[in-house]
């Protein structure tokens, strides 16, 4: 077959592939090519005149033997491209350059089509498919990414995080294709003594990723709604005798059944003393009458994750002590949410919630002074959330910023206070979108007040 004919066949096949995936049989609510192009333009605008930005896809990683982990794309690479394949690298310049006889500011090197590989692991878009689907200026096969292609001699600054991304070199006894490309960048930077602007790269990414665009807000809204649904269904199903992992299963069933690819982070589902362990993910204990069940679980949807925590009584009613602690955490959360306004420094959210909790713990006689209160509230109240569960974002709140507000009180058995407080662990966490006029609680779909939670627990569930 002639070279032209092969190219023609490849083009036919990739347009078929694109149209097949554009059918109603597949989700259609992904970020648009125009969104990713806009993000690339914004990054380029923030670079130095002779700068180059280099962002790698995530590597395929071995789980054990010949089984890989489920592939999850690198979030920065995804933000700028939308591509969900490994073995690719995006290169951006501020001013047009010529690479491989093509002049422009954006070049992506992707894996080639390979019928044998595709038989095992599914379609690869290839150069023509990526060009058609993502509209990046110039698309090449990744074996063209060589020291000659990537001439950094005229570059004054390299914007990249590849050294922080722990790229390993061997994959199933051979050099990983992505590691080979990272080596190309690394040897070029070392031999030409070019400065690697890692810190400035993170600063630019924070300023961009921290302000969510309308298309991102739509996906965050969806991730939060799915997460809220999971929490509601756990409330309806909870009963003494249920295992922590069964509550987790109900939660994650609703995530997956709603189109979420996977939880945004390992689900934390802890009863009683396990509610006092901040990142408990063992989830094996039985939930008994009188226990509080703390679930810190959220869905990821098309790359964006929510981060939601609810704490509920296993037998349907908060005990008087549990209610006192719960209401104090809720009051602290409301104080934190009240700070979520345009122009307010982000750390004021933590300060407001912390003041309520410290004062309240003194008031309840659990500690004698505010200085002693930190042991029961040992973590921060708020972080950015988006592509990453602990996302990059600006220090001052602005429209489009999304932060969590998540105060908590944890009193493990053996604490230096009245035994009636022991094994109470409460955290309430919501995802708050800052708007021009105030804020919006994206995860308000699952109840926060003790009365509403007790009411919902009374509803029947088909998972009981
Ligand atoms: Mn969180």
TrEMBL record:
Enzyme class: hydrolase
Alphabetically ordered keywords of this record: Aminopeptidase, Hydrolase, Manganese, Metal-binding, Metalloprotease, Protease, Signal
Signal sequence coordinates: 1-24
Superkingdom of the organism of origin: Bacteria
GO MF terms, alphabetically ordered: aminopeptidase activity
Coiled-coil residue windows: none
Transmembrane segments: none
Co-factor(s): Mn(2+)
Pfam families: AMP_N, Peptidase_M24
Gene3D superfamilies tied to this protein: Creatinase/methionine aminopeptidase superfamily, Creatinase/prolidase N-terminal domain
UniProt keyword Protease present: yes
Residues of the Aminopeptidase P N-terminal domain: 31-169
Reaction(s) the record says it catalyses: Release of any N-terminal amino acid, including proline, that is linked to proline, even from a dipeptide or tripeptide
EC number(s) given by UniProt: 3.4.11.9
Similarity comment: family membership: Belongs to the peptidase M24B family.
Protein name: Xaa-Pro aminopeptidase
Native species: Aquirufa avitistagni
């Amino acid at each position: 077959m002639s070279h032209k004919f092969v190219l023609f066949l490849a083009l036919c096949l990739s347009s078929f592939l694109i149209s097949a995936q554009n059918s109603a049989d597949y989700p259609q609510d992904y970020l648009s090519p125009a969104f990713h192009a806009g993000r690339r333009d914004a990054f380029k605008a923030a670079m130095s005149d002779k700068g180059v930005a280099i962002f790698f896809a995530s590597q395929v990683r071995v789980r054990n033997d010949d089984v890989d982990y489920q592939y999850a794309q690198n979030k920065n690479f995804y933000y700028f491209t939308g591509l969900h394949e490994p073995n690719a690298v995006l290169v951006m310049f501020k001013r047009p350059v010529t690479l491989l006889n093509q002049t422009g500011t954006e070049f992506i090197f992707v894996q080639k089509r390979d019928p044998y590989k595709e038989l095992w692991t599914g379609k690869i878009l290839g150069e023509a498919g990526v060009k058609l689907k993502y509209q990046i200026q110039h698309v090449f096969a990744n074996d063209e990414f060589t020291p000659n292609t990537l001439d950094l001699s005229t570059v004054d600054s390299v914007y990249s995080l590849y050294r922080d991304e722990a790229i390993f070199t061997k994959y199933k006894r051979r050099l990983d294709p992505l590691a080979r490309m990272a080596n190309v960048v690394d040897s070029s930077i070392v031999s030409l003594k070019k400065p690697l602007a890692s810190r400035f790269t993170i600063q630019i990414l924070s300023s961009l990723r921290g302000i969510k665009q309308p298309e991102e807000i739509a996906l965050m809204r969806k991730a939060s709604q799915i997460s809220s649904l999971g929490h509601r269904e756990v409330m309806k199903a909870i009963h003494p005798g249920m295992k922590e992992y069964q509550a987790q299963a109900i939660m994650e069933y609703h995530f997956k059944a709603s189109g979420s690819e996977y939880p945004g982070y390992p689900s934390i589902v802890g009863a009683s003393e396990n509610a006092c362990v901040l990142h408990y993910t063992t989830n094996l204990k039985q939930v008994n009458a009188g226990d509080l069940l703390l679930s810190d679980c959220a869905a990821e949807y098309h790359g964006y994750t929510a981060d939601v925590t609810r704490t509920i009584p296993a037998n349907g009613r908060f005990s008087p002590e549990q209610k006192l602690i719960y209401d104090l955490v809720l009051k602290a959360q409301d104080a934190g949410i009240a700070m979520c306004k345009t122009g307010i420094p982000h750390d004021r959210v933590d300060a407001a919630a912390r003041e309520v909790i410290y004062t309240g713990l003194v008031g309840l006689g659990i500690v004698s002074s505010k200085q002693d209160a930190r042991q029961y509230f040992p973590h921060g109240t708020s972080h950015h959330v988006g592509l990453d569960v602990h996302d990059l974002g600006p220090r001052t709140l602005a429209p489009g910023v999304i932060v969590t507000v998540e105060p908590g009180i944890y009193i493990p058995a053996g604490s230096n206070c009245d035994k009636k407080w022991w094994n109470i662990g409460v955290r309430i966490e919501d995802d708050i979108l800052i708007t021009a006029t105030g804020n919006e609680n994206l995860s308000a779909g699952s109840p926060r007040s003790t009365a509403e939670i007790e009411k919902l627990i009374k509803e029947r569930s088909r998972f009981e």
